[in-house]
Amino acid sequence: MRIIKLDESSKKNILNDLLKRSPNNYDNFADSVNAILANVKENGDKALFQYTKDFDKADINASNIKVTEEEIKEAYDRLENPELVQVIRKSLKNIKEYHEKQKQYSWFDSKPDGSILGQKVTPLSRVGVYVPGGKAAYPSSVLMNVIPAKVAGVEQIVMVTPPGKDGKVNPNTLVAANEAGVDVIYKVGGAQAIAALAYGTESIAKVDKIVGPGNIYVALAKKAVFGYVSIDSVAGPSEILVLADETANPRYVAADLLSQAEHDELASAILVTTSEELANKVSEYVDMFVSKLKRKEILQKSLDNYGYILVTDTMQAAIDTANDIASEHLEIVTKNPFDTMTRIKNAGAIFLGENSSEPLGDYFAGPNHVLPTNGTAKFFSPLSVDDFIKKSSIISYSREALEPLSEDIQKFAKAEGLTAHANSIRVRFEEDDDIKE
Predict the structure, then answer these.
(1) N or C terminus: which one in the chain shows less Cβ crowding within 10 Å?
(2) Is 328 considered catalytic here?
(3) Are residues 38 and 56 in the same domain?
């Protein structure tokens, strides 16, 4: 890996380089995506089935687009590793327990004068979960997207995922969906699946929100339909930043950097450290691991494109750099990681100490692995139960509670030139119908 002595100029260049990976910079795909969305919106199932034939080479129609109970049962028998079922159940338990702590409840605050203020929390009625297919099928993502919705109390969870040429869905995906409690699964992927969820077709009813990862076409489609439905985010490529000092184990750090670099050629893996000795050792271990790992071509391209080892003069400079990058995953491997963590403002998920490696969060610990990318951790949060609820304000005033406020409300309304607003209050306390400007 390249080692850079960090200064303001090099940091600015690296930040600009990382932002190039954002889906917002792939507008050359937008016309194709918009054409797909428009076709599905206009022609419904007909367009949906044709795109599935064109892109996935599968013959899908109204009679087989929905996954059957028999297909789900068959998926358990098709698993390459039957032990995966028990692993999924253990992971599911941890994820559920973590997200149950996020639940919010309606509340009401009543006062002696007869006024009641409050907040009503209501789960979304219908949520669509997009799940990639083929080699990019990740059962862990199924759990992370579905379980918070279940905990929130969503009435119906719909999953869409592309079929193989044989019209079947990846068995790992089906098993994870069944264990997590998905209500219905449809065999459709790509931008056309997002269109079906956003607009509805003869086979697939419109949803209120769409969540889940996908390729650039899926990401741009989600961005385009926002407003017709809600979405979780427009996710970019995976990224990890390790913040380390001289106490870190270089072998562990190298392995953790590669855990994200293997996702794809646009993934970012960055070490920020105060130790030149650690930087050199990590670089050596990275080269050694890459030569032995299965996805070495992807790993090498990812590191060549967006892999950095950044050396700073002080820990504060390293922390400032981590906050500026606002990485999706941040590992802190310092002498006192909890103290370092208190100075971190921007990160999707924070892993503390040398034994808290990023894959622990991906699969098993419980916190959600759907995280903000491309610097959006400065203003976005991980997927949570909050993403599957909506809140309504509650206001109830008695006449006795309203009267002392009536003059002030009317003055406020008149100051804004909204005399009908003022009149709405006035008529409750004055009998005449003369509106006073």
Answers:
(1) C
(2) yes
(3) yes
Q: Would 374 be classed as within a structural domain?
A: no
* Residue 379 maps to a domain: no
Question: Residues forming the annotated binding site for NAD(+)?
Answer: 130, 192, 215
Q: Residue type at 398?
A: S
Q: Which domain holds residue 141?
A: 25-231
**Adjacent-strand bridge partners of 240:** 269, 329
Binding site listing = 130, 192, 215, 238, 260, 263, 329, 362, 416, 421
Structural domains in the chain (count): 3
Q: Which residues contact 240 (CB under 8 A, 6 or more apart)?
A: 256, 257, 259, 260, 261, 268, 269, 270, 327, 328, 329, 330, 331, 358
Q: 276 catalytic, yes or no?
A: no
Catalytic hit among 329, 354, 358, 369: 329
DSSP 168: P
User: Whole-angstrom Cα distance, residue 166 to residue 243?
Assistant: 46
For the ranges 5-9, 140-144, 371-375, the lowest mean pLDDT is seen at 5-9
* pTM beyond cutoff 0.90: yes
Give the model's pLDDT for residue 136.
66
Q: How far is CA 354 from CA 3, 334, 337, in A?
A: 22, 8, 9
Model confidence pLDDT, tens digit, residues 121-169: 999 999 999 999 866 678 999 999 999 999 999 999 999 999 999 999 9
Q: Which of 129, 136, 131 is nearest to 263 (CA)?
A: 136
Whether 72 and 97 share a structural domain: yes
Q: Which of 239, 328, 331, 358 is catalytic?
A: 328
Question: Do 219 and 302 reside in the same domain of the chain?
Answer: no
Written as six digits, the tokens of 285 are: 């271990």
